[in-house]
Amino acid sequence: MVVLVTILIYVAYQHYHKVESEVISQSHANLRTATKLIQTQLESSRSSITSLNKALLLKNEQEANQQAIELIYSTENYNDILRYNPKKQTALSESDIDIAQHNHSQPKRIRMDNLTWTDMSFMHNNYQVSNLYQSRNNRWVIAVREKYPKRLEQYVIEYDLWYMSQTLIDLQTMSTGNVFVADRATGKILLHPNPDRIGKSASVYRYAVAGKVIQDDRSAPVSYYFAKQPKFSFDPQDNMVNDDPSGEVTYFFKSDPKLAVYNARNSLNWIYFSATSRSALFSHSYSLLLIFVLTATLLLIVVAYNYLNRELQIELTKLARSTDLYEFRKQVNVLLSRFCSRHRVQLCLYNHDSHTFYSIGHSGEEHAISMDKEYALDLLSSDIQYIRNIEQDPLASQIQVDKAFYRLPLLGHSGLLGVIFVESRTRTYASLVKLLRTYIETALSNVLLHRQLSLRDSATNQDNLFTLRNKISRYKDHKDVYLLTMDVDDLKGVNYQYGYTCGDQLILELTDIISAHFPSAFTLSTARVSGDEFCVLYHADNQQMAYSLADSLRDAVQTHRFKFDNSTIRFTVSVGVSQLQLSVDQTLTTSLQATERSKKKGKNLTIMNVTI
Prior knowledge:
Number of strands: 28
Radius of gyration: 29 Å
CATH architecture of the largest domain: 2-Layer Sandwich
Enzyme class: transferase
Distance between the termini: 77 Å
Organism: Vibrio ezurae NBRC 102218
Protein name: diguanylate cyclase
Low-confidence stretches: 211-238
InterPro entries: Diguanylate_Cyclase (IPR050469), GGDEF_dom (IPR000160), Nucleotide_cyclase (IPR029787), Rev_trsase/Diguanyl_cyclase (IPR043128)
Pfam family, one: GGDEF
């Protein structure tokens, strides 16, 4: 018996460390995702700052103010836009300027004495980010500016850290952990899913990462070291554990022991943390502790349970490592088939924009099932249910579920993610189903987050080719859907005559024109598929209407003008239109052929390929 107990204690110990290593691995993955998300948000300010500074350089302050106000109201992450004078260390708020113009008064200058600036290497060191500070409206913010402006006064964009932090909410480890970011120089929290923590000192930084604590009375008790306002001595070059800019540390937050994975390898002088409560690690080992209590009489059950638990951990690890929806669907089927029911398992995902439920095919393609907003709202407010009458669920009837089933709504930060139907003749353990759903929701949130990052064009924020192909496949059976392919005429000549910066601005101007003519609310997809090639997937009642919409866009482009330096730039596009064909490749080929014919016939034309 002693040997058996010893073995089980050892197994429990190894199991705990296995869970810990998996948490560390997932935490590193979350830190990489967080870094990419934050860099993407900061990079999005590049074009705005360039455009605003250009307007300021042209001494068109009224236009610059209007442009700044539009950016503030249209971009959730922006707190304010400032005209900053680094020599005087003062700034004017564009919001205050706008209010002053309406009130016929003068805006008040803002003192900005305590700003320090850090180069951002991922933006080629041409832009800088500030330290943490409170804005004029008492919001915690950071600022981004151009490093080498063409005049002394320049534009600075303030990022509201509360809104920036929302992107970190779904980056959870074991459903209880979170990702947050602290300033390496001060230890203050910059980004945190809990907005009340922003601007406060990070406990993990104070007690586990920063330099040593200094106090006058060396004989004071240990508790003094953990006072709310201890005195610290920081060395900016040596404030990491064992001089290592990444690793793991254990610390206490409100008496709760936590495991934190950190990474300070970035040019922002920030530290990224992914923290998980150690009690959560223990909670995932509760089954082995229960086995330990019952070892004397339930040895056979212990062995069987240990095997099942090991297999469950293997399947959950595979699920957590899913990188796309096809792999995720396959792992969900394996997991639920092994541990809940050997009958059919059906995953249906939900698209918030179109209120459409869709399934993932055997090759990863998406198949629309139904549009039902009311049913989605019902799922959002319901829990796991065991349903015997199939007619009670409209979606289950559509996908031809033919047995009693469990219905598992999958929820994320943004709302309903999807629903799983698990056919089962009898009820299974409710706690097991809830536990598996928690893992599935976390894994699905991470897969969708990674998918979102890979589905958009970084320069224009439009769909990329991969996303466009998926949407064409989804609507290929719809006779009222058309694909417009558009190619900029002589873009190389514009780049040669005016420079690549002008070419980049041309692409952004064209993006705005497309968005104006094909709003996202009424368009299936607007995509940039290559440097100067754009596509639009849209509804039209007939071919004449499809052609008219496309030619209207072409005409809008040829009449559009924009300023670059001291030149007025105009450009044209060649447009091809095609109805959706039997396959994605055939649809793209048919539309591109029409575009090529447009170019060969003299450019600035719209041609429809009517071949079906």
